[in-house]
Structure formats: structure tokens, C-alpha cells
Amino acid sequence: MPEPSLSPMPGPVLAIDNLTVAYRAASSRRLALDNVSLALQPSEILGIVGESGCGKSTLGMTILRLLPANGHVTAGTISLQGHGDLAQLSREKMRSVRGREIAVIFQDPTTSLNPRLSIGTQMLQVQRAHAADAAPGSGSAKTLRDNAVGKLTEVGLPNAARAFERYPHEFSGGMRQRVMIAMALLFEPKVIIADEATSALDVTLEAQVLELLLRLRETHGTSLLFISHDLGVVSQLCDRVAVMYAGRVVEEIPGEAVLATPRHPYTQALQAAVPNRRSRGQRLAAIGGSVPDMTEPAQACSFAPRCINAMAICAESAPELYPYDSGSVRCFVYSPSAGEQWSQLPSTEDWRRREVEAVPSRSVTQVEPSDQPLLEVRELMVHFGGGGHRWRPGRARPPVRAVDGVSLSLSRSHILGIVGESGSGKTTLGEAVVKLLSPTSGSIMFAGRDVTHMSARETFEFRRRAQMIFQNPYSSLSPRMQVGSQLTEPYKIHKLPQAQRRSVEELLAAVDLHSALRSAYPGQLSGGQARRVGIARALALEPDLVVADEPTAGLDASAAASTMNLLTDLRARMGLTVVLISHNLSLVTTSADEVCVMYFGQVVEHGDTATVTANPAHPYTKALLALAPDPERSSRLERRRLLMPGEIPSPDDPPTGCRFHPRCTYSQEICSRVAPVLMPVEDGADAHLAACHFAKEVRAGMLPEELRPAASQLGSTSAW
Amino acid sequence: MLLYVAKRLGLAAVVIVVIMALLGALVNLVPGDPARIILGPHATPQLIAEVRRSMGLDNPIYVQVWDFMWQAVHGNLGTDFISKASVSSEIGAPLVNTLILSVVSLVLSVVVGVPMGILAAVRRGGIVDALVRGTSVVLLSAPSYVIGLLLLLAFAIDVHLLPALGSGSLSNLGGYAERLIMPSVALAAFWWAYLARLVRSSMLEVLSDPFVRTSRAYGLKERVIRYRVALKNALVPVTALTGLMVGYILAGTVYVEVIFERTGLGNLAIAAIGNRDWPVVRAAVLIYAAAFIVGNLLADVAYRFLDPRLRLEERAEVFI
Ligand code: SF4
Ligand code: SF4
């Protein structure tokens, strides 16, 4: 418990009381926030979590008084320590609060920074905007610059003085987000609002940014409002979490309890939908239904239509926030008066059980896997650009080796997961497999025929049998064509006889979509629906192989879960073979039979899912696994130890020796000299391959510190 | 960046050379014997042959082409068939008139059109916006000669506010400037409409960009956001358009010079075409083409300069 405080102003830095926000459209009104009360304590990290449409981002924008023109605060107050109710401030006063007392970090640093101004100029602009409020004498060009450069150094930009002069596009995504954070720190604000600040980053970079935020809280005592859709991230970072649903706070809970002991059925449902260590090899549970649009303050539990624990009372009146344990829950189960109606407390398992029970009812036609691999890739290389410079031979650039010697084989009706950060070459590999790119060298055999040497006729036939599901479903669907005609378009292209065609209804049903959607246009679909239409379109021709590139990117947990389940079901029902490409290892492991981890254009580990997840043999895989959220224990400590420094290096300058060595916590002297080859971890057993000099030791569970003393002999024996 | 400019310059030079070659060969490609046209229907064959020789028309085409190019590079654009004066000296004064008209029109287009667009964007949905958009629709559908004639009717014939015709002389600057007003307005009006619409939509687009939201969230003043942050980004498409503007305005000067009876390259060229006075036509076309190419070159370079992503492309490595 905190000691009695001496500060003159105790209490929360930011207090939100009974806040209600509505958006007005032409004829209707939509409640985005309904009676929300929250308090952000000094140097606290408060997480706000929920699906899209729950009002999380509206909350952030309301605090800054930057709602779009049709948004209005209809009730409630937001008070900032030392300023009182922000709504009472003059426009000019409010402007001076923004960026100085409350700063924001937005999701996508690529678009959130001005592409035409150097980051230095942008940081100076911000500081000049508040020149009138700053201490006299602090406005000289030099002090402003020094302040900015200091902050850039603090967030970990190498050579900050040089970085100051650079433009946003010259930084990688992770560095750009650090720039954004430096900008937020310029005035050492009381409160930083992070709106999906890590959602656009790869897992390893996300972990770095989270680490940075934790450190900043320690050094500056800043309070952080961390808005995210990701339960796992929130549980790792936040002291306290508010779960939002349909504009209301439904649960307040300590951060470490979010995954361990969630109370509200909605939080439990979210957890059941998120892959974590426990869910490996299991189906994820989708919630079903979607967040309702609220027009009036809730008269019932707004989650009732989707809730598996609902009882009659839930539809009759609205639950309050009932205190429970160290938090509070807006659910009748926890109400002192109505709680007895439930014989036991709801749990995450309820959702999992329902999902599992739902499966057998579907008709399963098991296709026995044949021994012939359907797909066999040998020594595949895809290089881009490069070659001599026409006029200045000295400036010849090496090619970008997007895929650099990958071999793998995949049996019929197997799911192969390919995992890697952006820049690992996983998407390029996928595109080469379905012949959207031609490889520089190597071969791809599909059902016994070489994909790279096909006649135009054969290619046409091949395209029917191997399909790609693209990352962005909207961009791969034509906006001016109804769903129904898009689905049957492949039939026309391939001039399939009527007998082999399936009806639009059948195709929609295959991906669990209502047949009414046949006449919808892509713009009217939700993210999850559009994704399903993309899958249905890919499946129309009954291909043998489907390459799915980040099939869950940009989806809410529940929609992502049901997309993954869909792919697994289709495999079971139709014997589909799937190459599943994702940056999210946990996600891949829920449904893939085999996993293939890529780094910098090469496979670093390959094996069946159970082996790889239980006993990873490559430090990179091990680190990726450690970064996955774990409901059983707070994994901050282990994460810190395995946290990878740096990012995937520039593609035209690969590191010598093992390409992973600059970031590897296990790295030894030999690693920078000798490149390890992909070989069986156990002699004789060729199902588990890894490319690391110390694969055996890593697999045995040794930690980096333990490796060091033994390294000299071990390194030399396993390398030569 | 430098390499890029060099490349573009090289390309422009190639295009000019090709145009010169075509122009050199032009006489032989069009129907009618120039010598016969000069001398009239009753000329004797000997006379015609002599004139053809003096004009170099009896040489093979490649010699004619080469001669024309060689002379043109040295500033000699040939001899006027009719007045026997050097084309270069004949073209000088009208060219200056046309250039002044073009530049004034170009500047007028930008200084009125761009602010119109900004105003409409900033006052989106208001009266100013409606007014700007309404005017734009009207102006966009009226060609420069229609506007020119209407202006003549309104200000010179009905009201006598401005001198109607001629281009005046540079020794009387006031009169010269007065005579520039109507023609340049006639040329610029279309671009007011076009630029206003372009700037409006590009400004609105930029104002809804996430980085503008960032600027607001960091407390930048609305004025700074509009005129420093957003405007700079919104004007980029306008620079890309400059090349097109130069071309259209130059083409427009021909109509306008005819309507307002101004001395200028346009009128000169039209008269020369009527007379089959090939050296003059050739020179005029060459100048138009060169102006067009230079305009485009400047636009491309400026566009590239304004976008750091392109400007810095050659900085070898991506930072960090
Ligand atoms: S109040 Fe009822 S419907 Fe709402 S979450 Fe609790 S059990 Fe489910
Ligand atoms: S070879 Fe060395 S650097 Fe590469 S992964 Fe293994 S231990 Fe790390």
C-alpha cells in the first residue's frame, strides 16, 4: 500500500466520470460511449481493451477533444489534474494541453508522421506550438533541438542527431514508432494515450516497444492509457485493464489477471479466441455475432445476445459494475442479489467446450494423406533487383535475396505454417509457390510437375488447382461487383462445365456465410465477412492447394478465430492442403501440422507443430514462443531475457555467418564466421530440422548464460 | 537528384533533336511546291528551279534536315520566303509579346486559382465553397476564345473600360499592361476553375490524413496546420500540373492573339501558314515545342524535389 502522499494534489491524473458520447448521422444517433467512468492514477498503465466498435478509440479522441464533427459529448466530464474539466477549457487552452500535458501515440507511424517534413522539423513544430506556455528562455532553436535529440536518444534511436535530419520513410516501422514516442515525450506529459500503438508491429518489435514504454513509465512517472484490441499485449503491459463492450466498461481487472482469471463472460470469450500457449493444437473459440450498435442507453446486458451464460434476467435489466475480487464486473453473475441464479461461475472453458462440441455435428470426411508430397520446393531462390549499375559499375547493388535457398515438402491435406517477421521472405515464398512470381533458381514441384517450367496451358490448369488467399480481402475483391458474381467469376474464367460448378449458396455456406450476402457489395461486408468471401472465391474451383497470406490480419480476435477454424474445417471436409503464412507463431500453431520458421529468406527451423513448440531448437523460434502471451504466469521476466534486440537487418546487406547472430542471445564467436546449415536436430531423425550451431543445446532448454562456458568446445564440434 | 536532373535534361535534348529533324523534313512532307507558291502560278520552270536551289530544296532530305538543325543550333532559323528577312529577327518582337502574355497568364492562374481552392477547402460546405464550385463549373466549360470574346463585349465595347485591341508597345508600360489584362484573364480563367477544384480536393484529402490528426493531437495551431502542414502537401499535385498548364496556355495564346489582334507568335504563325511560309512556321513550331518541353521538365524536377521519398532515393542506404 502506498505511503501517505505528501503531494498537494493526490488522486487520479485523469478522471473520466459518467462520460457519454454520441455520433449523429443523418437520421440516427449512435452511442459510442455509454456512461463510462475511469480513473488513471499517477504513473499507472491502464489498459482499454475490446473488439473494434466498442468505443476504445472514441474514448481517446474524446479526452483530447478531437471528436469528428458529428460526435458529441452528451453527458459526463473528463478532468485532468490541475486543469479541472477539460470541456470547460477555452479552445486555445485546450490546444495547449494537447501534446504538452496529454500526448498520443497512434497506431500506424507510417501515416501518422508527415512524409514531407523531416522528423526534426516536425518535432520543432510541436515545440513551437507550445512556445507561449514554455518556460521563458527555453525557446531558443538550440534548446528545442537539444530537447528533441535527447528524446530521440532516450527512445533508443542510434545516432539521434543524424536521425533528427531524416524523413519518416528513411526509418523502419519499429524505429518510426520510436520516433512517435519521442515526440510524445517532448514535454514530458502527465498522460500518454497509446492508441493501438504496437498493433502494426511485428511481435519482436512490439515486445521492444512495450519494454520501452515500461521503462519510460519508470523514469518519467508518466501515466499511460493503453488502448488495444490485443488481450495478450494488455496483460503483459498494464497494471489495470478496463474491458469495454458496446460503449460500456464491463470489467475492471488487474493486468496480470486478465488472462489468468477473467471474470466477465465477454473477457473470457475474448481470451478463448486468442491463441496462447495453452491453446496449441486446439480450436479457438469464436464468439459469434457482432458488437451491437447502441442507440439508447442499455436497458439490458448488451452482451446478452452473444453470451453463453445468459439467463432471463440478463435481457430484462442492465447489470451494474459489481465489485469482485480486486476488480469489478458488469455481469449479473457477480451481483449480490441475482448471483444465486447461476450454479457456478462462468469460465473461459465454457467457450472452448462449446466450440469443441460444435465440431462433430459437421460432416467430416477424412481424406487419408498419401505418401506422395503434393508440393515440393527445392533450393528455391527469389532475388529482386540488383545487378550492375549501367553507368557506374562501381555502384553495383547486390540483389535483395527475398527467398534464399528454401527447401520443403508438403503432403496432401496437411497444413504447413510459415512464420516469420516482415522481411523474412514468407510472402514471397508463398507467391512463388502459386506462380505469382517466378523464382531466380530452384524448383517447385506440384503433384509431380515442375511449376517453374509449365506451358501456358499447364499454367492455366495449375492456377485452378492452386489458389492464393490474399492478405487484404477488400483489395482482392472488385468493389463494384456483387458478392455472388465475384464468387462464380472463376468458373467463367476457367469455363467450367455446369456440372462441376457449385451454386453461390453452396459456396457461401461452405464458409459459414448467410446466402443473403450474395447481393452485397464488398464495401458492405465486415472484415471477417470479406475475408470469408475471399476464401470462398479461392475455394470455388476446388483447388488442391491454398496459400493463405496472413488470413487474420486486421481482424478482431473472434473473427480471426473463426477464420482459422474455417481453414481447419475445410481441410477436414475437403482434404484441402494449406500453406498458412503468418507473423503470429501462436496463431499458426493452433491449426498447422507442421511449422516452418523463416528468418531473412531462409528456413531456420522446421518440424511438426508439437515438437517445435515443445522443444524449439532455434533461438529465434524460442524467442518467438516466449513472446506469446501466457495465461499461467506473468512471463515478463523470461521475456526480458529472451527479448531480441534490433530488427531484421537491411536486405541488401546480410550479416556474415549466421544471419541471426546480431540479434541472437545465444550468439557465440563462431556464429559471425560460419553460417549454420539446416539439418536434423537429432541425428537420424529428420523430422525436426534447425539451422543453428547450438541447436541441440537450445532444444535441451539451455539458457544463453549457460551456453557461454561450454561454448568453445561445443561450437567447434557441431560446426565442422 | 542531380543524376535525375541530368537524365531528364538528356531526354529533353533528345526530344528536341527529334522535333528539329521532323521540322527540317517538313517541307517535303506537305503537299504543294513552296517555290511555286512563292512565285505564283505563272512562273517559268527555270525560275522555280532557281528558287528551289536557293532554298536548298533540291538537296536530299537528310542534307536539308542537317542544314536546318545546324543552322537552328546557331540561332539561325532560316530566311522568310516572302520578306527575305532573317526569321530569327522577325520572330523576336512577337515572341517577347507571347512570352510575356504566357507568363502573366500562368502567374495569374496560380495566384487566383490556388487561393480559391484553399478557401473552398477551409470553408467546406459554406457559401464560399458553393460559390467557388459554382464558378468553377461555368469556367471549366468555357474555352478561352469564348471568354475572350465575352470580355471584349463587356469591357471594351459596352463599357469602354479597357482598350480593346492590339498589344501596345513596351515603351508605354501602362498601356501595355492595360492591354494584357483581358487576354491574360481569358487564358487564366479556365485554370482558376481547374486549380480551384484540384487544390480544394487535394487539400481536403490531406486534411483528413492521419498526420494532420497527429498535428492536431499535438496542439499545433489550426492556422499552422492548414497553411504549413497541409498546404505544402496539397500543392504537390499542382506542381505536377505545371507542365500541362504551360502547354495549354501556349496553345491558348494563339486564339487570344487572334481575338485581341495582338502581335505575337500565334498571329505570326497563322499568317505564315496561310502563306506557306515554311521557315516561319517551322521556327514557330520549334519554339512552341521547346517551351512545352521545358515546362514539363521543370514540373517533373519540382515534383521530385518536393517529395523527399523521391528526392533522397539515391542516398544509398536506408537509415537504420
Ligand atoms: S449479465 Fe448475463 S448476459 Fe450479461 S454477461 Fe453476465 S451472464 Fe452474460
Ligand atoms: S548459429 Fe549462433 S547466432 Fe545463429 S542462431 Fe545459433 S546460436 Fe544464434
Architecture overview:
The complex is a heterodimer of chains A (720) and B (320). Chain A has 720 residues and is an alpha/beta fold. Chain A has an 8-stranded mixed sheet, with helices on both faces. In chain A, strands 18-19-20-15-21-22-24-23 form an 8-stranded mixed sheet, with helices on both faces. A 4-stranded antiparallel sheet of chain A has the order 2-1-4-5, covered by helices on one side. In chain A, helix 5 (141-154) crosses helix 7 (173-185) and helix 17 (483-494) packs parallel to helix 19. The longest helix of chain A has 18 residues, at 203-220. Residues 1-8, 361-365, 388-394 and 711-720 of chain A have low confidence and may be disordered. With 320 residues, chain B is mainly alpha-helical. Chain B has 2 domains: 2-90, no CATH class; 92-319, MetI-like fold. Chain B is built from 14 helices and no strands. Chain B is globular and about 85 Å long. The chains are: A alpha/beta (720), B mainly alpha (320). One iron/sulfur cluster binds at residues 618-619, 658, 660-661, 664, 666-668, 671, 676, 692-694 of chain A.
Features:
heterodimer, A: 720 residues, globular, disordered N terminus, disordered C terminus, B: 320 residues, MetI-like fold, binds iron/sulfur cluster
Kindly report the spatial arrangement of strands forming the biggest sheet of chain A: 6-7-8-3-9-10-12-11
Oligomer: heterodimer
The CATH architecture of the largest domain in chain B is Orthogonal Bundle
**Which spans of chain B have pLDDT < 50 for at least 5 consecutive residues?**
314-320
Q: What's the helical proportion of residues of chain A? A: 25-40%
Cα Rg of chain B: 24 Å
Q: How large is the share of residues in beta strands of chain A?
A: 15-25%
- Biggest chain contact: A-B, 39 and 28 residues
What's the structural domain tally of chain B? Answer: 2
Question: Main sheet of chain A?
Answer: 8 strands, mixed
Distance between the termini of chain B: 21 Å
Average pLDDT confidence of chain B is: 79
Strand runs of chain A, count: 24
Structural class of chain B: mainly alpha
